[in-house]
User: Fold these one by one.
Assistant:
Number 1:
Amino acid sequence: MMYIVDGEQPGLFGQKHSNRDYNLADSWGKNQFNSSFPASLVAYMCSKNIEPVYLLTDKKNNVIHGFISAEELLGINPLNENAYYSFEAGYYPYEKYYSAKKREKIDLVMVNRETGFDVSGLEVKLTTLPDSTTKDSLEADYGSEIVVRSPTILFLACSMCACFDSPEGKNKLHDILNTIGAEIKNWSEKKFVLPHYEAIKKAVLAVSSEICGEQTPLIIQPIWKTDRTLTDLDENCLDVFVWSNLSVIQMCLRESNDDDNISRNQRTIIWLYKMLWDFSLYGKFNYTDIVNELAYDYKTDKAFAISGKLTNPLMRCEELEKPRISKYEIKNIILGNGQKLLRPERRFDAYLVSHPEIFKL
């Protein structure tokens, strides 16, 4: 059903061309909003010449901060007439690196309408600040929980494979990965894999160090900050952080390990190694088989989660403590009274629906 809200056509800033029709109520559901609003937040920040904070790694695999333009992030200026926002879509440049029972979709694919080419494929994580582990901390110590789904690791692996996409590159990757892959006789059994975990991690970090000059954006993480009572948005409430593909590896490594078991985070590193190992041998890896056979007693819909206490040291900066977009600018991003079509099933939706005054001032 198509809606006109109070005589206005609902929409989101910057999205002139998209596979979501914001005249339809279904386009404002919780899953849709959590990726479409962040895309428009990036576009809005671009219009104000505010660049997202970029988390990337150096040669020693330390997480460092920089800034990234919207055009570099998305592969095209988000306000360009040729920018097409394709949500929950396949990202063709990565599909040659893996096989799977079904085509995996990434949260946001930007397409250049003039050429028809996919110019970026990105995961989107809309997160609240602070989370339950940091809500009683000083503002400088606030952090956001991030939940990383399994297909994100697929896209991470593909982005790394792209750096070795030649016969010489595959041989080089194989050499960096060492002989661990051949030494493990049964990848599905923890007892055969766990003794090799430290060597697996070391090899993955060696690959990361080798390609640190070629890292690319992978996760867009907008934050929305609440006040100390957790009942209202903070005056300065919105900003965007971007994780490079290699910084996601560092996110995964921020946990204490159990020497007698394989944790979700360790499993993620094992998945990544196996994907890279198979690519170095065959030029492609079977994503479905790796994830299902290397489950290690966990469900496979989620790779891992990291709490705000652990993300804060990686994200800590002025922009985290004082986000650059105020709550009174949200009305410039959600257009045509689109907020009235939101279904407050998640907290950010609920805040917007229960605080109509920010759309009037």
Number 2:
Amino acid sequence: MIEIENVTKIFRTKAGSVEALKDVNLKINEGETYGVIGYSGAGKSTLVRCINFLETPDIGAVTIDGKRIEVDGDRLFLTDNGERKKLSEKELSRIRGSIGMIFQHFNLLDRSNVFDNVAYPLRHTGKTKAEIHDRVFQLLELVGLESKVNSYPSELSGGQKQRVAIARALANNPKILLSDEATSALDPDATESILNLLKDLNRKLGVTIVVITHEMGVIKTICDRVAVMERGRVVEEGKVYDIFSNPKQAITRRFVNSTSSLSKVDELVRKDSPLVKSGAGESRLYRLVFDKKVNSPVISEVSRKFGVDFNIILANVEVIGDETIGAMIVKIIGDDKAIDAALTYLSATKVRVEAV
């Protein structure tokens, strides 16, 4: 559905040049919800704007539903069905029409009511008034706002405003929906409501959704796969479950820890908390991660088999899609030889063991 090839974007200012994107390569499958996460300045919003060419890359190509747009100097070329030609404004507009976009701050017309905000993209499409009327009410029913058709943005909550923005983005039946920090301005309840709506739209309409966010909780809730960005580059990419269960990069671990109570152990260690101090006998502190490959009561097995005791300091279970990841911070108590044997056994049963 979407393929990004070697995309580089440079912003040139009086203060100098900023390379916002550096040789980015991604493939996003049709019908999936794909997340792009990074801190401020990582390049994620620039990336999403390059997908619909609100920003033009300096180098690279973007393929949308089989249509490949390639940057060649200061010109854009379109390859469609094997034919390469200069990209016209008309063709670019047609491609953009297949992509809807929702924003952090809604971008609604303050002096227009809900009906007119949703109808706005339909005004110059050749549709009759009756067709526009029917389409607007169809969309408002889809996002659960039929009763607000005559209301103005100032009369709506943040979550309701975002629902109007989503309805407007869907007006022309796009195949792709880009969500640029769409929940960042919302409270937790409204965020949950909007994420559930996006999941429902993905299921009902089969629309491909690209989610730009700095919140790992959003990725965990809604996305199938995720790309982690840092300083204009994709540093890690994969299925959300795999990224959560075994993050490779330091920045990815920071994002994963931000949604887990287990990250509190680092603070306990820094503060020399009694919880993480050694008690009587020999003891060591470990993080144990149990993914879907672990399906037996290994803690009790290890305790009996090797004569060691486990003091559970913190524990957490993450639910991602239909699968779970369990993790705990434990103090293992026993002599060194027994602890080493226990750790070897745990690793052999696919428990990931990390010394804290």
Number 3:
Amino acid sequence: MIKNFTLGQYFNTASVIHKMDPRFKIIQIITLIVFLFLAPNFIGIGILAIAIIFILLISKVPLKMYLRNLKPIIAIIILTALLNIFYVTGGTVLVSWWIFTITTEGLLKAAFMATRIILMILISSVLTYTTTPTELTDAIESLLSPLKFIGLGEAVHTLAMMMTIALRFIPTLTDETDKIMSAQKARGADMESGGIFKRLRALMPILIPLLFSSVRRAYELAEAMDCRCYTGGKGRTRMKKLSPSLKDFVALFITIVICTSIILLRIF
């Protein structure tokens, strides 16, 4: 399951999404996620689902890579659906046993929430699959640049760099965790049987090597940045300057139209 988690990886291909200004991508993806939670019914979710599926297709990233990110959260999706099935009342009662009651409203709410979570994971993956770490850093720093007027110029660059490095190392740490788990299983470690406390104790031989590996990688990264005379954002220039194009504004306009339709659905 861990090795199938691909969030944080960059998939290099020539698509319209890859060529967009990363600042516009961040703004539009965050906006779509927010409106996923504002959608009042299946019509709103359907509109957003069509838009998100269209974005996935034109990104030219294989759909199986997007679907891999759903595997680690299948348990969360199922748990959310079950809670809605058993605790949401209304509509026609389908099953009633002991303290459990399943109604048509509960089933609809479960499907609604599950769809919402799935779409949120899919659209979030688009950002890292289609944007390089350098572009992400520059975009985040540019979006937070107004904070420089209140004396947080260095903090803005540091925050952008930290967020980008964190995203960049998600697949690296995932691979490292999978290797450590495979090594421990080869030594006879049992991590899949017993109660919850036994399983938690079985994670210690994984967490400790992973912690040491993370610290070692952080030290090597800091040393590499120091060897390259990295001094932060002050006086730093960029090889590529961010500049929006016509397709960025067209995509922003389409996003505004979609969000406006969701607002109208909530009102009427």
